[in-house]
Design a protein that fits this description.
Length: about 240
């Protein structure tokens, strides 16, 4: 999550996950990729802190960073029971003084980095923060899906919320330009969210150049199916 969510952060969990149960389910899938010994985790783009909350419940120690001041404030409130270390930080410039057994960057956080140079710099920073044999787990927008099954408009409704995204592709820059109109009752939110999308082979090359030895890419975190042109994101698991 980043500063783009400052206008409708209060609807974030309802719009994208619906309930804490879905966070719990996703965390249960993600930890299956963890190495045998994982104690310390870094959650990049922690948002409201709901993934971290489930990890704390399982006994992990979690540090969190986010670029949005409001997200950091909200995460601190949601995680106050655990005295979590939550910092306002941009991953492109982040220099960790700690080493982690696992780093997470969920909900397409790294796709908000619209320059590939920023993406590769972030990966180098993450790599340096990892212990030996540690894992990085993240997802990005799936370029295969966009360029093969592009929809210029998406609509989602439920829980009293209506959302419409108008979308445009800029293939030469691998960018997805979106404009969101989100309503709940009398409240109306307008946001622009731009993403850089990637292709599986491209990701593998970039990650290997960053130093990662083993890279797996799936359509979701249950890990049963490899990537295809139907799902909107690529879920990546890579080991140092």
């Amino acid at each position: 999550m980043n500063k783009l969510f400052t206008k409708y952060l209060d609807l974030y969990d309802q719009l994208y996950y619906g309930s804490q149960v879905l966070y719990k389910k996703e965390v249960a899938e993600i930890i299956k990729f963890f190495p045998k010994k994982v104690e310390n985790i870094l959650d990049i783009g922690c948002g409201t802190g709901k993934h971290a909350l489930e990890l704390f419940k399982l006994g992990y120690s979690v540090d969190c960073i986010d670029i949005s001041p409001l997200a950091v404030k909200t995460a601190k409130e949601n995680l106050k029971k655990y005295r979590a270390d939550i910092k306002l930080q941009n991953i492109v410039n982040y220099k960790s003084v700690k080493k982690y057994d696992a780093v997470l960057a969920l909900f397409m956080v790294l796709s908000y980095l619209q320059k590939e140079s920023d993406f590769t710099k972030a990966l180098r920073n993450i790599y340096k923060s990892l212990n030996k044999h540690a894992v990085l787990i993240f997802d990005v927008v799936n370029g295969w899906q966009l360029e093969n099954n592009f929809e210029p408009k998406l609509k989602v409704s439920g829980r009293g919320i209506k959302a419409i995204w108008s979308r445009k592709l800029v293939p030469q820059k691998q960018l997805l330009i979106t404009s969101a109109l989100i309503t709940k009752g009398k409240n109306i939110y307008n946001e622009e969210e731009n993403f850089r999308y990637y292709f599986p082979g491209q990701l593998k090359d970039i990650l290997k150049q960053a130093g990662f030895k083993k890279v797996k890419i799936f359509i979701d975190y249950n890990g049963r199916k490899r990537y295809n042109t139907k799902r909107t994101k690529l879920c990546v698991v890579c080991y140092k």
